[in-house]
């Protein structure tokens, strides 16, 4: 799938970037960081321009987040209450996640772009939590811009080595996420 998406970006340019990022943010298994780093590589080769690529990527990723937000806002909580027990989501767990999201959700929406999984779920939970769209926009839009600038700029500077560097980032990012999860569980356990 990744090769097809990279071809789509190379062939369709900005429209391909936009479409791939919308689909990736909604939750399809699209390697978003890889796509943006590849776009940066295409910039280094003169096939795309930096500013339009950043703007299209930010708008595409934010559009995907907005779709996720509206799905969560419209269907989220009632759907999870009704069918959540089939996937072991009890009302207590849902209330616990919602309480956590009330405390840390703004941070999760902005910084969550950099963490696969959190990026996908934070918009759904913002919708489920019935955030006003304006509040969601104020936290999601800057996150989209920072995220896209980071990876497109990285791809622009590393050029031919974009794939190796992206794979290395994913490898160590997963390691960092595991450490953070273990630390959070440890803190939770100590407090209990």
Describe the structure.
- The chain has helices at residues 2-12, 14-26, 32-44, 50-83, 91-111, 118-128, 133-158, 162-191.
- The model has no long low-confidence stretch (mean pLDDT 83).
- The protein contains eight helices and no strands.
- It has 192 residues and is mainly α.
- Helix 4 crosses helix 6 and helix 4 packs across helix 7 (133-158).
- It has one domain.
- Belongs to the DedA family.
- Keywords: Membrane, Transmembrane, Transmembrane helix.
- It comes from Paenibacillus gyeongsangnamensis.
Give the topology.
Blueprint: H1 2-12, H2 14-26, H3 32-44, H4 50-83, H5 91-111, H6 118-128, H7 133-158, H8 162-191
Q: Write down the Rg.
A: 18 Å
- Broad structural category: mainly alpha
Number of domains: 1
C-alpha geometry:
globular
- Biggest sheet statistics: none
Percentage of residues in strands: under 5%
Helical coverage, percent range:
over 70%
> Gap between N and C termini, in Å?
44 Å
Q: How would you state the average pLDDT, rounded? A: 83
Number of helices: 8
Q: Which quaternary structure do these chains form?
A: single chain
Count of strand segments: 0
Low-confidence stretches: none
SSE run? HHHHHHHH
Pfam families: VTT_dom (PF09335)
Protein name: DedA family protein
Transmembrane segments: 12-30, 50-72, 136-157, 169-190
Family: Belongs to the DedA family.
Descriptors:
192 residues; globular
In short:
This protein is mostly helical.
């Amino acid at each position: 799938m990744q090769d097809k998406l990279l071809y789509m970006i190379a062939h369709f340019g900005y429209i391909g970037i936009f479409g791939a990022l919308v689909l990736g943010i909604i939750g399809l298994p699209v390697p978003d960081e890889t796509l943006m780093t590849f776009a940066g590589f295409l910039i280094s080769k003169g096939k795309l321009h930096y500013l339009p690529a950043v703007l299209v990527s930010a708008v595409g990723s934010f559009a995907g987040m907005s779709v996720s937000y509206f799905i969560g806002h419209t269907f989220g909580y009632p759907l999870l209450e009704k069918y959540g027990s089939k996937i072991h989501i009890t009302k207590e767990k849902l209330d616990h996640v919602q309480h956590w999201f009330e405390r840390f959700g703004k941070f999760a929406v902005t910084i969550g772009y950099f963490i696969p999984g959190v990026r996908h779920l934070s918009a759904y939970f913002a919708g489920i939590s019935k955030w006003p769209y304006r509040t969601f926009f104020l936290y999601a839009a800057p996150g989209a811009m920072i995220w896209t600038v980071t990876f497109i700029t990285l791809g622009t500077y590393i050029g031919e080595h974009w794939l190796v560097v992206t794979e290395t980032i994913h490898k160590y990012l997963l390691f960092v996420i595991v450490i953070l999860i273990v630390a959070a569980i440890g803190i939770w356990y100590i407090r209990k």
